């Protein structure tokens, strides 16, 4: 079968190539998926460039990408939740990475039936970004009438986080650039802040939750805008100590300034590392079917132009997700 | 099973032998919300009569989107009749929208009832006539009525169905988007 593979770390054009490889085999808990569409995410770019070698080393060659939608064509003996012919979507676990291929084997625990009211391409755009948004906001215990600041509302994670927070009844502030204000507003955000003309730190006050998708100075600034006892959830800032321990970094200490601000606000600070989870994807499915969450797609590429899709991702100019139609 | 027997008896005289045969080939089942009875792409061997609950048949297009052909509530039959009559693989999926009770028949055994008990021929013809009428009405309504008119008719035909279905089930039955369905509902509520 045809697959897009990473053959070495480095620039996109030098590192990715189409290879003819054998169809994956399944174990007793896996389903074999005939891939209809795959989607790519910023993490794929970091893996290709070799920036994550320490945390997530990959052998060469490795088929790339995590997001997938498709049809179950085979299943292991212990799989009872899915049947051959089921239409599904998934964020495949690290050890099963490789969705830009004709087939992928995935543990059934990471799989959910796809929403029936959207296309395969739309479904493939949801898992990684949707799970990140959902697991982050759920960790923060988001509830009705909470005030939430979500950075980068036009991003893959931000655009889904806005919709998820609105589905939970929260009041949502978000930041974006002038070009995106209109469509981000249409996602349901209550107050869209154009960071080119407005200072969000003046507008946002005493929020319950900040969802930090930008890192750098935004992580520290979050403590200026949360209420006493508020929560800052990051997917890109410094690790918190518990998460660092989970990654085996026993002696890790948080940056001093960050620790000081957390304590001054009696705040919760948590780095969320998204976990593949079929049950969570099923909750997202229901929200999509009730039109609480709409997938946002920037562009759909044919399989043969997958490398161009990565170049587009690397440009950082996509509004919504980049999807590859496989079959 | 009694519901089905009574329904048949209301249109033909049913001999006790025929009634006994019907019993012998039928299985009454409780099925749970979310269960799939027929799956697109597979062989179809069963036909179902609904005694309680709500089922749906739909096809999935090449882009992965669902299109609803039929809802089946109390006293309706449901299966993939294209597959049964043409001996092809299923083009439809039949799923259970709410916990339901059904009577399941093997289509071959159900077919045999016509040779064994000729009185069933007229019952079957009567059923097919009603089915053709309802299909023609559905096609004509789709061609000539506006979306709000189709929604009104739908509510008349399937009273109380909204509590069992998600918005996209109804939208995909009417051939409209969920946004259009929401607008129609808002307009209707204003009246």
Describe the structure concisely.
Chain A has 327 residues and is α/β, with parallel strands linked by helices. Helix content of chain A is 30%, strand content 27%. Chain A folds into 2 domains: 2-126 and 295-325, Alpha-Beta Complex (Quinone Oxidoreductase, Chain A, domain 1); 129-271, Rossmann fold.
What does this structure look like?
The complex is a heterodimer of chains A (327) and B (191). Chain A is built from twelve helices and 16 strands. Chain A has helices spanning 12-15, 42-49, 120-124, 127-139, 156-167, 181-186, 200-203, 217-225, 241-246, 256-264, 278-289, 306-315; strands at residues 2-6, 16-20, 30-40, 62-63, 67-75, 87-91, 103-107, 111-113, 147-150, 171-176, 191-194, 207-212, 226-234, 268-271, 297-302, 321-325. In chain A, strands 3, 5, 6, 7, 8, 15 and 16 form a seven-stranded mixed sheet that branches. In chain A, strands 11-10-9-12-13-14 form a six-stranded parallel sheet, with helices on both faces. In chain A, helix 4 crosses helix 5 (156-167). The longest helix of chain A is centred in the middle third of the chain and has 13 residues, at 127-139. Chain A is globular, with a radius of gyration of 20 Å. The relative contact order of chain A is 0.16. With 191 residues, chain B is α+β, with helices and mostly antiparallel strands. Chain B is 48% helix and 25% strand. Chain B has helices at residues 2-9, 16-25, 81-86, 107-116, 119-144, 147-157, 167-174, 178-190, and strands at 26-31, 36-38, 46-60, 66-72, 77-78, 93-106. In chain B, strands 1, 2, 3, 4, 5 and 6 form a six-stranded antiparallel sheet that branches. In chain B, helix 7 packs across helix 8 (178-190). The longest helix of chain B has 26 residues, at 119-144.
